[in-house]
Specification:
heterodimer; A: 407 residues; mainly alpha; Cytochrome Bc1 Complex, Chain C; two-stranded antiparallel sheet; 16 helices; 4 strands; B: 182 residues; alpha+beta; four-stranded antiparallel sheet; elongated
């Protein structure tokens, strides 16, 4: 025991961890829940990394189809039904139903992903309302945050594609083709897709690229940006308290607590709360593996996207795609330039109510689209904006020479 | 004490390496950009033409479907060319008792979902499961409302243009795909 205590002391001393552990954290940030949500998002990332590591052992990317008759021991049926599905789907099926604890690991991965997206969005709006980009160094952290949010959503979409279930394949096909609307503006997105991925329909190569992006490239970028961001917060401080009175503000800024045990206990408590919520969600709302997809088989109508992209689906269906396809780009670009537009010094709500209002409109655009997508079955066009036809020189003519066959 | 000469040499080496590196990185990039422009000029904006076979005589079997099989109903074939996979539906269109062999790229022109063929034995059109676009094959030899004969034009829904066609030819008892637009 003595040895381990000594070892711990040496580790603390040699790696200068004391300075990190005793790092002063402002007291108001430990008390205000608006300063907690970022921790939840960051912790979700690590939960996802661990569960994803386990899932990657058993997952095989591939489009080639096989007929499999699984040993149906779980349901107790003696006559197991064989199914035809892609290699990817088969491996996810194996993880879900034929591997001990596989079901729970995949469910935690799924729910943690949803939790991370929700926490990322909530963190974004919390910092928008607090105006945290106003302090010195806050603009750079805001930029990193917007990039991280974009990467989080990308990561969710990439992960959603991987099992190649019905919704996943539609997400992939839409992802490969939706931005070809930029072709009509003269940006050769179609050619770019072909040059980078080799195909605009799913192939083994495409699914392998998506797999490596999902498990290596994007998480690595997220990790690097996250470390940069944590370092920036460590040495640049958290956002100032949202109070108008300068004396009260100065007082709040002076009141500090050491990171360990105060903030550490808070973050660890949040992590345990998060894990228990995840387990509860898995137990009460297990998400089934969706229908398999096989090339050439008819796809049933009425498939809807998952909630993180539901708002986009709604707007693209409501408004003409020539206008609405670029909506995410507009939202991300606007989020990036917010620190340049909002130059006011004040950080309290009454001093910057205009920007709080803009933040609320921003939330409302996403929230309204999400709710509407679930509530009503959208008609083709419900806005007065009429459909813009493709200019005749862009239309593809029928190229075959009609010749009848047979008698 | 700093040896100025050595420092200068180092600077020259580092500068030369950086210049070479930047050159090596940008040359293919610029080259590919020029290439993209050429491709863009060749392609009919938003669609890229892929030649599967130059002529029907030397076309491999994998790009073909027997006509007898098409008489039972439309058939899905995944056409593979290089790294590309083109999902195609072959079928016969009945025009006043005559059977016309046709093939279309089943990637919806709206957002790229795979479309489902409609009709029984003979192909009459396609429907998109994602956003409800309907494509109808024009069966009027004089064309229908600005659309060519056998063109799968949009009848309802948000799709902006007709389904991308595949040029077919008949040799013996098989229908071959010659050129596809993706």
């Amino acid at each position: 025991m003595r040895f381990f205590i000594r070892l711990w002391e040496i580790i603390i001393e040699r790696f200068h961890l004391k300075e990190f552990l005793e790092h002063p954290v402002p007291r108001y940030s430990n008390l205000n829940p608006l300063y907690w949500i970022g921790d939840v998002a960051a912790m979700s990332f690590f939960i996802l990394a661990i569960t994803g590591f386990i899932l990657a052992w058993l997952y095989t990317p591939g489009v080639s189809t096989t007929v499999t008759t699984p040993p149906d021991i779980l349901s107790g049926h003696t006559t197991a039904e064989s199914y035809i599905a892609t290699q990817s789907y088969g491996s996810v099926y194996r993880i879900m139903y034929l591997t001990p604890l596989g079901f729970i690991v995949r469910q935690i991965h799924l729910w943690a992903a949803y939790m991370m997206i929700f926490a990322t969005l909530a963190h974004f709006f919390a910092k928008f309302i607090l105006g945290s980009y106003k302090r010195r160094g806050g603009g750079a952290l805001w930029l990193l945050g917007v990039l991280l949010g974009f990467l989080t959503i990308s990561q969710a979409v990439l992960g959603y594609i991987l099992p190649l279930h019905l919704d996943g394949i539609l997400a992939l096909q839409i992802g490969l083709n939706i931005f070809r609307y930029f072709d009509y503006l003269g940006i050769p997105v179609g050619q770019l897709t072909l040059a980078l991925l080799g195909s605009n329909f799913v192939t083994d190569q495409v699914i392998k690229i998506i797999y490596s992006l999902h498990i290596l490239i994007v998480p690595a970028i997220i990790l690097v940006l996250l470390v940069l961001k944590i370092n920036g917060i460590l040495y640049g401080g958290v956002s100032p308290p949202p109070v108008k009175d300068p004396a009260a503000r100065e007082k709040a800024l002076q009141e500090k607590e050491p990171f360990y045990p105060h903030r550490f206990a808070l973050t660890a408590g949040l992590l345990f709360l998060q894990l228990s919520v995840l387990l509860l969600l898995v137990a009460v709302f297990p998400l089934p593996l969706l229908e398999p997809w096989v090339p050439g088989q008819p796809v049933p109508a009425g498939v809807r996207p998952p909630w993180p992209v539901m708002w986009y689906y709604t707007y693209v269906k409501m408004i003409d795609p020539f206008i609405s396809v670029g909506l995410p780009f507009v939202l991300v670009l606007f989020a990036l330039v917010v620190p340049l537009l909002d130059r006011n010094k004040g950080v309290s709500i009454e001093e910057r109510w205009v920007w709080v209002l803009i933040a609320l409109v921003y939330i409302a655009i996403i929230g309204y689209g999400t709710v509407l997508g679930y509530l009503i079955d959208l008609p083709k066009e419900i806005t007065p904006i009429t459909r813009i036809a493709v200019p005749p020189e862009y239309a593809t003519p029928y190229i075959s020479t009609p010749t009848p066959v047979g008698p | 004490m700093v040896d100025e000469n050595r420092r200068e040499t180092l600077k020259i080496f580092i500068g030369a390496t950086a210049a070479l590196g930047i050159g090596a990185l940008t040359t293919p990039l610029v080259g590919s950009l020029i290439n993209v422009k050429e491709m863009k000029a060749k392609a009919a904006h938003g669609s890229i033409e892929v030649v599967l076979c130059e002529s029907v005589d030397n076309c491999p079997e994998e790009y073909s479907v027997p006509i007898d099989e098409l008489r039972k109903g439309p058939k899905f074939v995944l056409l593979k060319k290089g790294t590309m996979a083109i999902p195609a539906v072959f079928g016969l269109v009945n025009v006043g008792g005559k059977e016309y062999p046709v093939a279309y790229n089943t990637v919806c022109t709206h957002f790229g979902c795979p479309v489902n063929p409609s009709g029984g034995k003979y192909l009459i059109g396609f429907s998109c499961p994602c956003h409800g676009s309907q494509f109808i094959i024009c069966t009027n030899p004089n064309g229908c409302d600005g659309h060519a004969f056998l063109e799968a034009y949009v009848s309802t829904g948000p799709a902006p243009q007709s389904l991308r066609p595949i040029k077919v030819a008949v040799k013996g008892d098989r229908v071959y795909a010659l050129r596809a637009v993706i």
